[in-house]
Design goal:
Layout lengths: L1 H5 L1 H12 E2 L4 E2 L14 E5 L1 H16 L5 E5 H7 L8 E6 L5 H11 L4 E6 L5 H4 L3 E4 L12 H21 L4 H21 L3 H11 L4 E6 L3 H16 L2 E6 L17 E4 L6 H13 L4 E6 L3 H5 L4 E5 L7 H20 L17
Parallel strand pairs: 3-4, 3-5, 5-6, 6-7, 8-9, 8-10, 10-11, 11-12
Antiparallel strand pairs: 1-2
Helix pairs in contact: 2-7, 2-8, 3-7, 3-10, 4-5, 7-8, 8-13, 9-13, 10-13
The structure holds 5-amino-5-deoxy-1-O-phosphono-D-mannitol (M6R).
Length: 356
């Protein structure tokens, strides 16, 4: 897992190389047997971390491409029988391309005459064979049970897909595309800088390892990042963790807060920073210990309230969830090392879940 974590900058760069034309700096997707301009709706489905990547993809597709998106975990999507107009887009996301629930969801979407586009890391997988089009993540083999680099590669593909869909649908002009592509192309070097924060992440791990329960918080596209952080922690450290949309705290989970329940928050300086900070202040006022992932622009205000923080480079809002994912995964890894659990092969889990 440690090796794969360190491959984040590389795989983001490799995936971009496949999706962005270096001369024109425009997103270039493979030929598709349907037109993104006329797709009435997208349905995203996946499991585990791939599902959280899909949640971030939904923010982008709705916001930039103005495409209505429905999303559900694959193991539930199949039972909902959602009414879908023929010609809608089924967007499946999977590292392995073999996950039984995602494959079953693909087949049930296929029966509804939707176009099947899959974002896959293993390009010769069952899902690849059954899709109309595959967008490959160039993450290389991912061996550790906990998905890391495949997740940021999935986000990179979904970001490019959102840009391409926005261009096709006339919701993004050339200057807008240029700004988003520049932010993406800048990411591999910004991602490499995250590893300088190792000491701060290890300090946070010393606090988290003592906890029985941990709350992860985020707003907007940082909410799925919080979910990814909580899943990684549960998966490899066996510490109970829950992710909440920061604004939901006051509707229940705030009653859990005391000194024994650390709060891990993803709060880069985006338009949602002030609101996230005010949620964190509410938690602090109730005795919460705040461990915050922020960026250079948010650091001053975060340091005034947080017990500890990790300061990442400030990047465009669009790519912030990709960058912010790296330290939450690193935190889970460091806690697992402190606990002495089997980081790469956690109990009860398989890399690829091929049973429903
Ligand atoms: O191969 P897939 O991407 O379809 O796998 C989906 C999930 O099983 C997977 O993301 C799982 O949640 C990981 N172990 C998370 O780290």
């Amino acid at each position: 897992m440690e090796k794969e974590l360190h491959e984040h900058p590389l795989v983001i760069g490799q995936t971009l190389q496949r999706m962005v034309d270096p001369a024109s700096r425009r997103v270039m997707l493979p030929e598709m047997p349907f037109d993104l301009a006329s797709v009435p709706r997208a349905v995203i489905t996946a499991c585990g971390s791939a599902f959280y990547a899909g949640m971030i993809g939904r923010y982008w597709l709705e916001d930039i491409a103005r495409l209505p998106v429905d999303i559900d975990v694959a193991s539930e999507m199949r039972y909902r029988n959602p009414p879908l107009t023929a010609g809608s887009l089924g967007l499946l996301i999977s590292q392995s391309g073999e996950t039984a629930d995602t494959l079953a969801a693909l087949r049930s979407l296929r029966e509804k005459a939707v176009h099947i586009l899959s974002v896959l890391n293993v390009e010769h997988s069952t899902m690849a064979r059954e899709s109309d089009v595959v967008l490959g993540t160039v993450a290389g083999p991912e061996i550790s049970v906990a998905s890391t680099k495949a997740f940021t590669a999935q986000l990179t593909v979904l970001a490019c897909l959102s840009i391409a869909a926005a261009r096709a649908r006339g919701t993004l002009d050339e200057a807008g595309e240029d700004a988003l592509v520049s932010a993406l192309l800048d990411l591999p070097s910004r991602a490499a800088e995250v590893f300088t924060q190792g000491p701060a992440i290890r300090r946070m791990a010393q606090i988290v390892v003592e906890a029985r329960d941990v709350l992860y918080l985020g707003r907007g596209s940082m909410f799925p990042v919080a979910m990814e952080g909580a899943l990684k922690l549960k998966e490899i450290t066996y510490i109970h963790a829950e992710a909440y949309a920061a604004g939901e705290m006051k509707h229940g989970p705030i009653s859990l807060i005391d000194r024994t329940v650390p709060i891990v928050a993803s709060a880069p300086y985006t338009p949602l920073f002030d609101k996230t900070l005010s949620n964190l202040q509410e938690a602090k006022a109730r005795g919460g210990r705040l461990l915050v992932f922020t960026d250079t622009k948010g650091a001053d205000r975060v340091s005034a309230i947080a017990e500890d923080m990790v300061m990442l480079p400030h990047v465009h809002d669009f790519v912030a969830p990709i960058l912010q994912t790296i330290p939450v995964q690193m935190l889970a890894y460091e806690v697992a090392v402190l606990k002495g659990t089997d980081v790469d092969q956690p109990r009860n889990l398989a890399k690829s879940v091929t049973v429903e």
